[in-house]
Amino acid sequence: MSEKQLARVRRICTALPETTEKLSHGAPTFFVKKKVYVMFANNHHNDGHIAVWIPAPLGIQDVLIANDPDAYFKPPYVGVRGWVGVELDRVSDDVLTSHIREAWRLIAPVKLHALLEAAPAQPEPAPTSTKKRRP
């Protein structure tokens, strides 16, 4: 598993209100109020993708895939419902954060949307090692 990419996704998701994480179908999956909004896919059935699968607004899946097929794809199972796969090594933290926040907004109950506005637009960077090097 790409621990670095999973840590990146986890950092973004856990900064969002009411997010929980658990394994679903063997993959780390992020929920808001028991509804899935991000699935981490680590070479699912040897498809070569280290990605997240996220819901997208109506019509956006086709636009993203057409404009950047190296970064976006139609994932199995959920792609028919408009979800999009995002290749994690092909998008910046800002772009990934934007997609994940939109996915959260699409899935979360409307009464939680005000909490999203209070959440930081960009999560805190991952901590770096605090070990001091010897001269």
Explain what you see.
30% of the residues lie in helices and 23% in strands. With 135 residues, it is an alpha+beta fold. The chain has a single domain, classed as Aspartate Aminotransferase, domain 1 (Alpha-Beta Complex). Strand 3 and strand 4 form a beta hairpin. Helix 1 crosses helix 3. It is globular. The termini are far apart.
CATH topology: Aspartate Aminotransferase, domain 1
Q: Helix coverage percent of residues?
A: 25-40%
The second-level CATH architecture is Alpha-Beta Complex
Largest beta-sheet characterization: 6 strands, antiparallel
Number of helices: 4
Could you tell me the strand content as a percent range? 15-25%
In angstroms, what is the radius of gyration? Answer: 15 Å
Q: What class do helices, strands and sheet pairing give?
A: alpha+beta
The total count of strands amounts to 6
One letter per element, helices H and strands E, the order comes to: HEEEEHEEHH
**What is the CA-CA span between the terminal residues?**
35 Å
Overall mean pLDDT: 89
Low-confidence stretches: 129-135
The CATH class is Alpha Beta
* Major beta sheet, strand line-up: 1-2-3-4-6-5
The total number of structural domains is: 1
Global outline: globular
